[in-house]
């Protein structure tokens, strides 16, 4: 998968050299290219923003540097290759595990993290006419810019790519994984030693009885979901849970 990120803070994306994403890059599974938006300006101060038409607080990112940067990136693709543009914005559609799965199936993603009050709307319109453009929010809060959301989204997408996680089965149990645990959060996990500061692990986990362990995990997942995300229980289909139980 190819990923391009256009930003005025290229250093903000340095964590993409670390851990899972860094290793995927080193193995050639991910081709990540970070571009400095200011390189596509032509004035002495490398201006990327201006005051909003109609007045109001804050600044708006000018369309010209974005247009130049995106045209160059798009032209650098193989003939016929078309990227999906991901525009982080608190006004976007929610970023969910389902969207992460969908994006992980695309060959090429271009992220456009903005600062200030956002990017001049005409940029979204211009590329939206020719490309698949997704305006995406990572949650109902406002950050100072889209770079942290890009780190979040890239990590969520990269771990779904074939061969990136050591154990391919491990994301089937993820909280929010489409299909498997329906909409339950994952329950608690334990490792050695069996006793720590007088606290032992739940006995069922030592029983070796896979059916009982799976049922216990389901119950714990349900308990945690009811406590932390009652909204998810409402969307839970009891028939799907029963079907899951019968597979145990
Ligand atoms: N930029 C600022 N806040 C954001 C959010 N919650 N999601 C995506 N991009 C953002």
UniProtKB/TrEMBL annotation:
Subcellular location field: Cytoplasm
A Pfam family assignment: tRNA_m1G_MT
Superkingdom of the organism of origin: Bacteria
Predominant cellular place of this UniProt entry's protein: cytoplasm
Residue ranges annotated for the tRNA methyltransferase TRMD/TRM10-type domain, each copy included: 1-234
Keyword Methyltransferase annotated: yes
Keyword Cell cycle: no
InterPro entries per the UniProt record, alphabetical: Alpha/beta_knot_MTases, tRNA_m1G_MeTrfase_C_sf, tRNA_m1G_MeTrfase_TrmD, tRNA_m1G_MTases_N, tRNA_MeTrfase_TRMD/TRM10
Reactions the enzyme catalyzes: guanosine(37) in tRNA + S-adenosyl-L-methionine = N(1)-methylguanosine(37) in tRNA + S-adenosyl-L-homocysteine + H(+)
Gene Ontology process terms (BP): methylation
Annotated residues for binding of S-adenosyl-L-methionine: 138-143
Family: Belongs to the RNA methyltransferase TrmD family.
Purpose: Specifically methylates guanosine-37 in various tRNAs.
Subunit: Homodimer.
Name of the featured protein: tRNA (guanine-N(1)-)-methyltransferase
Source species: Streptomyces pathocidini
């Amino acid at each position: 998968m190819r990923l391009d990120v256009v930003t005025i803070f290229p250093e903000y994306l340095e964590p993409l050299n670390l851990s899972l994403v860094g290793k995927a890059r080193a193995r050639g599974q991910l081709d990540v290219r970070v571009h400095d938006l200011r390189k596509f300006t032509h004035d002495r101060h490398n201006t990327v923003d201006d005051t909003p038409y109609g007045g109001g607080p804050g600044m708006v990112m000018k369309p010209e540097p974005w247009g130049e940067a995106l045209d160059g990136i798009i032209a650098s693709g193989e003939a016929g290759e078309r990227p999906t543009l991901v525009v982080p914005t608190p006004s976007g559609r929610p970023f969910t595990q389902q969207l992460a799965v969908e994006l992980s199936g695309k060959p090429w993603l271009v992220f456009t993290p903005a600062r200030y009050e956002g990017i001049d709307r005409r940029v979204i319109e211009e590329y939206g006419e020719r490309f698949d453009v997704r305006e995406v929010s990572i949650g109902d809060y406002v950050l100072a810019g889209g770079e942290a959301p890009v780190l979040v989204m890239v990590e969520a997408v990269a771990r779904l790519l074939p061969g990136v996680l050591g154990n391919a089965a491990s994301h089937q149990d993820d909280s929010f994984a489409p299909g498997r645990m329906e909409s339950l959060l994952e329950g608690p996990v334990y490792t050695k030693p069996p006793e720590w500061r007088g606290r032992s692990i739940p006995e069922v986990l030592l029983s070796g009885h896979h059916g009982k362990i799976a049922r216990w995990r389901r119950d714990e997942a349900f308990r945690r979901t009811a406590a932390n995300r009652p909204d998810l229980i409402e969307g839970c289909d009891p028939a799907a849970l029963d079907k899951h139980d019968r597979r145990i």
